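S., here's the first fold you wanted:
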Amino acid sequence: MREDKKTIIVFSNDMDKVMAAFVIATGAAAMGDEVTMFFTFWGLNVLRDAKKKAYGKSFLEKMFGAMMPKGVEKLSLSKMNFLGIGPKLMKYMMKKKNVMMLPEMIKQAQELGIKMVACSMSMDVMGIKKEELIDGVEIGGVATYLGEASEAGVNLFI
C-alpha cells in the first residue's frame, strides 16, 4: 500500500458529487499523489463528449444514450435541481466566487496526470462507445480498478 496513491470511483453523474470527486482528485495530485479515477455506470456520463457521436448502436443503445446526460454541461444537482434551474444557479455562483467549472477541472486533472478510466462493463451495458468519450480516457474493467485500489492508501466511492 502506498500513502501517495489515491483511487476514486465516480459512480454518480450528479454535478455536485462529480465536482467533489474532481476537487479531491486534483487536490491530491497537486500534493504529489498518484490519482486514478474510475468512472462507472452513471459516472460515465461525465466522460461523454457532447460533440462526439458513435455509430453502429442498436435501437436500445440509442434510446439509453438519449435519456442520459451527455457531458458535464448537462449534469443535474443531487438536491434542489428544480428542473435545471439549480445547476444554472450553482454555475452562476461558482463563476461569481471564481470557483473552477467542471470542464476546467477535468482539463486540470488531465494536466496533473490523473488517470481517468472508463469501466468497460458499464460501457457495454449502457451502450456507450469509446468514440463518444473525451480524449485521454482509458478503458478498463474491474481488474484494472482493483489493481489500482490494492496499491492505494485511500479509496473513495462517490
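And the second, which I think is the more interesting of the pair:
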Amino acid sequence: MFARPAVPAPPPPPPPSVIDGVFRALADPTRRDVVQRLGSQQASVSELAASYDMALPSFIEHLKVLEGCGLVASSKVGRVRTYRLEPDRLTLVEDWLSRQRSLWTRRLDQLDAHLLNMKQQEETPK
C-alpha cells in the first residue's frame, strides 16, 4: 500500500475585522481610485493628491485609511512620503469573494435541480 501524500490544508480565512476594514476602505471612490493608480506605480503624496479637488489634510485621511487596513504602505525619504500598493490585501478580498461565489453557485445549482425535479413530478402522469 502506498500512502497518499498529505494535502496541505488551506490557510484559515482572515479575521472578519481585516476583511471589514478592506471593504470599508474600498467603499470610497477616492480610495478605490488611489488603489487603482498605485497598481501601476508607486507615487508620492503630492503626486497622488494632485488629481483630487480636496484639501491635502482630507486626502491624507484617505491614505491613512488605506494604510490602516493594509492596502497600501508608505516609506519616507527626506520630506517625501511615497505610497505603494500591498497586493496581498487585495488577494484576501478576492479569496473572500471567490468563496462567496462558490457557495452561492452551489446553492443556486441545488435550487435549480430541486425546481427541475418538482417540474418533472408535476408533468409525470399519475
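Why I say that: The longest strand covers residues 72-77. The chain is about 60% helix and 10% strand.

Talk tomorrow,
H.
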